Amino acid sequence: MQWTEPGLIIGVRRHGESSVILEAMTAGHGRHLGLVRGGRSRRNRAILQAGNSVLLQWHARLEEHLGTFQVELETARAARMIAAKPRLYLSQVLFSHLRLLPERDPHPRLLTYALEIIDSPASMDERLQMLALFEMTLLDELGFGLDLAACALTGESEGLSHVSPRTGRAVTRKAAGKYVDRLLELPAFFRRPGTATPAQVAAGLKLTGHFLDRHIWSLRANSAPPERERLLGELGRNAS
Fold first, then answer.
1. Rounded to a whole number, what is the distance in angstroms from the first to the last CA of the chain?
2. Any domain includes 169
């Protein structure tokens, strides 16, 4: 068994004295792991860094085996990420999210979006808005998408302002009535393209974070990536 495909490195861990197990996200083969022999050599250490894009050649006797990777560098990003902490934190959050996906299950839309965020020249606030949209897409692709098409109580498609933290269905402010304080705010950018304020981005990340915790993190005895909390803290200061 073998294949060749570009991939984004999302994780590396030691294996034995000189090798590493590389975790990469590819369009056609999804989140895929493989052994890189000699991966801890001086030359390979510079290449095998999370955030770099590489050309992967995977070989295994049987498809279900771990297999081995041959790796060629295509785009080096790791050094640029390390030089700017907010960019590094954002990238680490994206890698953590991609690791939530089932192994070898293709999700090309998420890979494309992750690369767009990582390479975007936009401001950090704008990239955090993109992160919120990425998390909404992640929920959808994992089977936990929210119902934001119409109000759960009235069927209206306009004026949607909040989401039930229990059902994930949207409601209008009028329909929410006296229960509005128990609901999660629905920023407009989730339904219509547009630039959001820092406060709206913070509300969007609170919304997606709630459902990621409800459906994924808590069930896996995990919590939100600590880098995500650091980014929220920065955004909160910008919004105040």
1. 55
2. no
pLDDT tens column, 45-94: 999 999 999 999 999 999 999 999 999 999 999 888 888 889 999 999 99
Token digits for 107?
């999700």
To which H or E segment does residue 237 belong?
A: helix 226-239
Neighbours of 89 (CB within 10 A): 20
CA proximity to 13, closest of 1, 4, 3, 22: 22
Q: Exposed e or buried b for every residue in 195-232, given b needs 16+ CB within 10 A?
A: ebebebbbbbbebbbebbeeebbeeeeeeebebbebbb
> In angstroms, rounded to a whole number, what is the distance separating the alpha carbons of residues 120 and 209?
22
Number of domains, the chain: 2
Q: Based on the domain organization, do 144 and 217 belong to the same domain? A: yes
Q: What is the mean pLDDT of residues 33-40?
A: 96
Comparing C-alpha atoms, which of 9, 62, 61, 6 is closest to residue 36?
A: 9
Q: What is the pLDDT of residue 237?
A: 64
Confirm whether 158 is domain-assigned: no
pLDDT digits (tens, 9 = 90+) for 98-148: 999 999 999 999 999 999 999 999 999 999 999 999 999 999 999 999 999
